[in-house]
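Weekly sync notes, structure subgroup
Attendees: PM, AL, DS (notes)

Item 1: joint prediction request from the bench team. They want all two components modeled as one assembly rather than separately. Inputs as received:
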Amino acid sequence: MSDYILEMKGIVKEFPGVKALDNVNFKVKRGEIHCLVGENGAGKSTLMKVLSGVYPHGTYSGDIIYNGEVQNFKRIADSEEKGIVIIYQELALIPELSLYENIYFGHEIVKGKAIDWNETIVKGAEMLQKVGLKADPSMKVKDLGVGNQQLVEIAKALSKDVKLLILDEPTASLNEDDSQNLLNLMRELKAQGVTCIMISHKLREITAIADTITVLRDGSTVCSMAADEYYGEAEIIKHMVGREMNDIYPKREKKEFGAKALELKNWTVYDPSLGREILHNVNINVRKGEIVGLQGLMGAGRTELALSIFGNTPNYKITSGGLFMNGEEVHFKHPKEAIDKGLAYVSEDRKGNGLILMQDIRYNTTIANLQALVNGLAINENEEINVANRYKDSINIKAPSIEQKVGNLSGGNQQKVQIAKWMFAEPKVLILDEPTRGIDVGAKFEIYSLMNKLVAEGMSIIMISSELPEVLGMSDRLYVMSEGTITGELSIEEATEEKVMAMAIKS
Amino acid sequence: MGENKQGLGQEIVTLLKTNIRDYMMYIALVVIMTFFAIKTGGGFLGARNIANLINQAGYVAVMAIGMTIILIIVHIDLSVGYVAGFCGAIAAILMTKYNVNEWVAIVVVLCIGLLIGLYQGLLVTRVGVPAFVTTLAGMFIFRGLLNLTLQETGTIIIPNEGFNALSNGFIPDFTDGDIHMLTLIIGIVLAVLMAFSEIKTRRNKLKYNFEVLSTPLFIVKLIAVSAIIMVIIWTLASYQGLPWTAVIVGVVLFVYNYMLNKTKLGRAIYGIGGNAQAAELSGINVKKVTLFAFCSVSVMAALGGVLYASRLQSATPTAGLGFEMDAIASSYIGGVAVSGGIGRVTNTIIGALVIMSLTNGMNLMGVDISYQYIVKGIIFIIAVAFDVRTRKK
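Output from the run, pasted for the record:
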């Protein structure tokens, strides 16, 4: 048998318009802890989905060699049968079921036709012991903390006789103690002969635990380093971000900043559905005519920050701090009030939160500011058509007419419709959340140019983005967020990719 | 863009392909009507029965219009049937026991409908009980209240002529001839207004370079629609004229159609149905609009109850049984998307006509009520299945 439990050779995976994985080579030694790192969108999760059979054989090219044999997984069950188990960041447990029911969910122990519950409970307790969770197997999953739920997931994996365990950002939502517990458990599993692949952003943990580190960037393998070969976090960061800064960011002629258009003071927010504080003492501001970048990795709390400012009160409870617009304190109870005061939010999730896909461009362009078109009771449709056509032309939305359904447009054009909608609302402060996610380079450039034009006209922009080059290329000043806290503020002159990345993974 | 430049044949094919969902509804209506016309030896399409059909369909039509709004925002109201029954009973009690003027009674009953809507809407929007559960409970509650209201009296015969005229009477005429002149004039005015508005819309669309029908097809469409209006009007005019029910449904339809297509509220309703989260973040107060929809559907249920009591000239403990099914089926047959966000009240009226033609036709043929339910259920499920399939493409 070869020294490697897993070899993925020349993996190419394409989505319409995007090459998510471009000739990735990935080798994992038997019995090691292998960390897979890279920026958001580098292709880590896609690679693991190819491995586990979420993307079945035939939808990608390249070979998966596991235990010396080429594998053609058609579905997750195929890979699990071979002992490959993946635990996602979003836990797949059923809150209302007990621990033992969850552990054997989907591969129940049966005697004849019926489930053997006694055996299930005994075996379940055994698995819990293996992961070091001292809990009654019959308690419900929802009564456990997130850290312990993670352990239940691992117990579930062990019950499937796991040989290769894949953990996708297992410590992202864990506190320090729980994270340490988990890392210790991984070391124990390693001693028992289980091979682990861990996807993570937290470099400190990676350097502490990894035997081998593979860095992915833009869908390709950058390098693979054994633990004794690399020199520390700085080197990993360099590999993660080390790409050429292309000239894709249009320059702004003159920069003139006015008074503070929006300011947050000690903004602390509690999320009732999660039952915990998600933003801690956030202090940020943006001046008139300024683009402020808000960088951070996924889950750092950037979108939550934007939504809590935007008056989405049912989901976020502001426990302390204040929001000031043009020096005046404001309290928004509903997005409507925020819009009326000149705030606009372009959602990162344009399909889920931004656009009404079954309606046309005209509808979506005017929906946030219909008041401006109302004549008595009725909407002035001629004026509305003029408005929609004007924006379609001025920001170059490519569609046969404004009667085109937004759901049929490309990602870039959908994004432009979203921006048109908020331009028509004439905001003073525009929050752009991942404005260029999933759109092609040409459309990106147009959106950047548009941002420059808007600030030149006196608007203020807060740009949330996890793409480092974009933040550095567009911002006048930037904040970095990690785990609900602002971990740093940098002027554009002093900001470098390494500095920002170091702040973004600070915990 | 602009006027369609394809060949005429090609244009018709494209038109059929893109609008198959809407056309199916009309085809179904024509097939059903033809079938009954043959089976009843023409009696189904006789002047007398057409007037009857309109009078019978009135209560379902107004309730279906209210239901359409609720279904567009992806909620449901199962309680409309017994709310209608209960409200009809209240009206009857007010008029007979307390000698309240019939018009005052109607206003009171509509206000009760509004209160019921507020109660159910607040449960859904403020407490967070799903609409299905809230209105299922409403079904129990209003059925109980209906029985309680009529417990002492049993079925109440309503003597008020004005009240009963709502679903049995016809608009007055200024001549005594065989042909009902006022009806004819209304029909002509309607046809002319329709033609003018169509021409105006088309001109406007051309101005903005939107796609429109080619001139020959447009003219054919105008003539066809005017002809249908005039045939119906002529049939009615040669009998006793336009039923009051048609006037009431027409007014309700006009108001709702205007609201949905021309006002901010209408935009908000479609937005919430399409994507409630996006609507909320666009500054639409989803809770307020949802509350409005519940109030509107209950007021329409109350109006339906009035029309039904007027039709029977009495209030009975069985009134309201299964009305919600007819209202929901009418909306879906009329093209409201099961996933929400799409639907037109004008099409809902066609859906109501389909459902009530089935009822009326099968009654004329003497089909047992059990079979009637089965047939209606089958037509309903075929319509929705067809809808789901055609929308997937």
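Discussion: The mean pLDDT of chain B is 91.
Action: AL to compare against the crosslinking data before next sync.
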